[in-house]
Specification:
- By secondary structure, this protein is mainly beta.
- The chain folds into 2 domains: 33 residues; 313 residues, Beta Barrel (Porin), CATH 2.40.160.
- It is 14% helix and 56% strand.
- It has a 16-stranded antiparallel sheet that branches.
- Strand 12 and strand 13 form a beta hairpin.
- The chain starts with a helix and ends with a helix.
- Keywords: Signal.
- It holds the Pfam family DUF6268.
- This is DUF6268 domain-containing protein.
Length: 373
């Protein structure tokens, strides 16, 4: 009977063993599952300056919980209605000009490729193509600068490399270098030497918590029209489940409202600077000076903006933005003179603007695999 009862007893214990195994598996899963569900989308850096990966437990990054999705490929179109244009010739022999611009539009295509994604080192390669177009009330305007701009457009073709180096659980630093070809060139007359513009930045920061990261550094770039070095302060902070701030002062400050993981609202300002080389078909003639065939156009504007980003489907998002553009400078300089003498002082009237954007983010399935690892 003992021999008979043992198998019978084992058969009776099988359900208990199976139940215990299930409970152990559930317990183990609970130990490796985060206490809170993973945040989607993962944190992302500010547009046009840096790129960063999601937070890890071992190393600090400048990103914080609640920031929008990391952008891999971006298509952006922006348009402004008509506005007044007034140009004042600053040297003897140049005329003044007053008219209206009936169109000012910008097309921007950007892409970011992670070359290396390690906990202690991340390398991101970025490429961008931008085109800015103007149309004026009369064409030809009989003003050489604007005839060139309307006929050719202003283009930027660039590439950048961003290095994100988490030092430990608290400290991190970012180095970025960017080279761009900016001007009114065509494919047949493109010269790297003439049109190349280089900018860079370095930031060193502290990750105080998953919701607070800040840093200080310097930037070399054209945010304020001409190439110059200026200090920069990064401040990313999420105050609660809804509100946060993302800033790279003085270039921009943005408040963030997380309506849901798939819908975010932003409001703030940004300072944008562009620097173009203009090759004139007809020279600008000055009294008692050499005729000018090349100008350096410095454009600086401040935008007060509101923005909405929303998920369309898993990896595809859109962004709607609108606001008011204040043009601080649209001036032409003598590129051949080391003193950079101002040749034309232009004023573009303030105007509202609107933009539409489509961008691709990492698929949710990919993010789940990353979390599981």
């Amino acid at each position: 009977m003992i021999l008979v009862s043992v198998p019978k007893t084992l058969r009776m214990l099988r359900p208990l063993v199976a139940s215990a195994a299930v409970l152990c598996a559930a317990s183990a899963q609970a130990q490796i599952t985060p206490t809170a569900p993973p945040v989607y989308p993962p944190p992302a850096p500010p547009l046009g300056d840096t790129a960063a990966a999601a937070n890890t437990q071992e190393f600090a990054t400048p990103s914080v919980v609640g920031m929008g999705p990391s952008k891999g490929l971006v298509f952006h179109y922006e348009r402004m209605p008509r506005f007044n244009v007034a140009s004042d010739g600053k040297v003897v022999g140049l005329q003044d000009y007053n008219s209206q611009a009936t169109k000012n539009a910008r097309l921007v295509i950007k892409g970011y490729i992670p070359m290396l994604n390690r906990p202690h080192l991340k390398l991101i390669l970025g490429v961008n193509y931008e085109r800015e177009e103007f149309k004026f009330r009369e064409f030809p305007t009989r003003y050489e600068l604007y005839d060139n701009i309307e006929n050719k457009g202003l283009k930027t073709l660039g590439t950048q490399l961003a290095v994100i180096r988490p030092v430990n659980e608290v400290n991190w630093y970012i180095f970025r270098v960017k080279g761009e070809l900016s001007g009114d060139y065509t494919s047949s007359e493109l010269s790297v030497r003439d049109y190349l513009r280089v900018s860079s930045e370095f930031l060193y920061g502290w990750k105080r918590s998953p919701t607070f990261s800040w840093g200080v550094g310097v930037q070399l770039g054209y945010t304020f029209g001409r190439q110059s070095i200026y200090p920069a302060v990064l401040y990313n902070r999420t105050f609660n489940n809804r509100w946060g701030v993302e800033a790279l002062f003085p270039a921009r400050i943005t408040m963030r409202y997380n309506a849901s993981p798939r819908s975010l609202f932003f409001a703030g300002y940004s300072v944008d600077g562009l620097n173009y080389i203009i090759k004139l078909r007809e020279p600008l003639r000055r009294e008692n000076a050499i005729d000018l065939r090349t100008l350096e156009l410095r454009e600086t504007e401040v935008k007060f903006r509101g923005r909405w980003e929303r998920e369309i489907y898993d990896f595809l998002w859109f962004g709607l933005e609108g606001g008011y553009r204040y043009n601080y400078a649209f001036d032409a300089f003598d590129r051949t003179n080391d003193n950079r003498v101002k040749i034309i002082d232009s004023k573009l009237a303030g105007a509202p603007y609107a933009s539409f954007e489509l961008f691709i983010v990492p698929p949710r399935k990919f993010l789940r695999k990353t979390v599981d690892k």
